[in-house]
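FAQ: What does the model actually see?

It sees only this:
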Amino acid sequence: MRLRNVSRSRNVVDRRGRGGRAAGGIGGIGLLVVLAIGYFAGIDVTPLLEQAGPSQQSSEPRELTEAEQQAGDFAARVLSTTEGVWAELFPEQVGRSYTPPQLVLFSEVTQSGCGGASGSSGPFYCPADRRAYLDTAFFGFLADRLGAEGDFAAAYVIAHEVAHHVQNELGILGQVQQLRAGASERESNALQVRVELQADCLSGVWAHHVAELLDSGDVEEALNAAHRIGDDYLQARAGRQPNPHTFTHGTSDQRARWFEIGRAAGRVGDCDTFNADRL
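And it is asked to produce this:
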């Protein structure tokens, strides 16, 4: 992805370098592995965290590594592209203005308006404070552990979380939350799948409108990432028999398909997963 001439977004809050993990608990990539398993595969990882003992943030500041600095710069530039795309599309396709989210960069653990980033949280969006949260070490996990390599695979992760903010701006997340409150677990999971697939589609809409920034192979990187974070793939990778009733993000094929639906024409209206007969 060609980002050299893209300015950095000013809506980035960088909490990295404010101290690392104190003694005890799971740290670094170990924590990311556990969180990602829970986030993507729908597995309750609380027992794993409890077995490892409490994890605490140290107040000792530290210098960011060169890799962390590069990851932060990359995230700020990708966020800037989402701001440009959605600021243009909202008046054209939605009929209103767009207010962008803040992106909080953190290391290992953090606090949000939705609580602590632990258990089932990896990269996530919090509707309560309208912020997206990202541990930039997740980029390495995505490439090294899941095989979703490439800068556009990482950009897709950011675009997906911003897409949840778009859903929040449109009032979709609030409506779904009300529906899930009175639903069974199976029905609630099914609704969440449609939320996530819509976010994948909206990520595709973004990809359509940043086509001039893409290098050869970038789209393939995003599609590979979508396949690598499908519920069926991740449950099988975790040694489980894939169980559709427990899916919360959609299958690999569904995630890739809805990304491509959004990318095809770049229209928000094409992303209505809630009224789609086929996911």
